[in-house]
Write a structure and sequence with these properties.
Largest sheet: 5 strands, antiparallel
Oligomer: single chain
Order of helices and strands: HEEEEEEEHHHE
Number of helices: 4
Strand content: 25-35%
Distance between the termini: 146 Å
């Protein structure tokens, strides 16, 4: 071991270095630069792998190898309607002699005076389709309503005049054509709205259809059809002359 001039052992300074656990830069080694573009290539191959997985999943699903994926946020419909309850049964003796189908356009507007339409206004255009029947109630025929002549070849029948049923609105073919609502009307819809508004439009359409049926001559058509039906039936029984008259209630 070399010694210095005083006889002491001489020491030599070496740079610090520790096997594999030290820091090469701390030991004076040049810094290691990352390879340019390495992270981009990694992201590229990751995207390619993800794309292959999606294509494989879609292919197997189309082939029926995997069950269909279900949207967890899909809208579901639950029917909690109670079973119908029979309230009454009636024996009918009506002869429906004619039926008319009508269409009406209801233009219903509700607003307030001195209030702008954009603020408070409600207008609905509703196309309503409904039917009205004309019938003869055979249940009201009395014992003296049928008079047979002495020769047995003629018969006279007195029937009550035909009646019209209430308008039966066909909801499957009726629809709202257009609807305008003001700002306050739209806000009211958020908090419940008016549940009777739609019913009011339906009722108005039924009233218009019933009025049109009364002026359409459907009752006269019912009388003619009833005469033809009874004449054909009684002539097949041997009567040669059949007279049918209608009596107003």
């Amino acid at each position: 071991m070399p010694r210095d001039g005083d006889g002491h052992a001489a020491t030599r300074e070496f740079p610090e270095y520790s096997g594999g656990g030290g820091d090469p830069q701390a030991a004076g080694a040049p810094p290691v630069e990352p390879r340019p573009g390495g992270w981009r290539r990694g992201m590229f191959w990751a995207a390619v792998a993800a794309g292959l997985v999606v294509v494989l999943a879609l292919t197997t699903q189309a082939a029926g190898m995997l069950p269909s994926w279900r949207n967890p946020f899909a809208q579901e419909e639950t029917d909690r309607t109670q079973p119908p309850v029979l309230q009454s049964i009636q024996d009918l003796s009506r002869f429906v002699a004619a039926e008319g189908t009508f269409q009406v356009v209801v233009d219903l507007e509700q607003d307030r005076r001195y209030v702008p339409d954009f603020l408070l206004n409600q207008r609905t255009l509703f196309v309503g389709v409904g039917a009205v029947e004309a019938y003869v109630d055979f249940g009201q025929i009395g014992e003296d309503a049928i008079v047979v002549a002495e020769d047995g070849l003629s018969v006279e029948i007195r029937l009550p005049a035909p009646q019209l049923t209430d308008a039966d609105l066909d909801l499957a073919n009726s629809y709202v054509f257009a609807e305008q609502r003001g700002l306050l009307n739209r806000l009211s819809e958020v908090f419940g709205g008016d549940p009777n508004r739609q019913r009011q439009v339906y009722q108005l359409a039924e009233e218009r259809i019933a009025a049109a049926a009364r002026d359409s001559g459907i009752a006269e058509r019912a009388e003619d059809n009833t005469r033809k039906m009874l004449a054909g039936l009684l002539r097949s029984l041997g009567y040669e002359t059949v007279t049918v008259t209608f009596v107003s209630p």
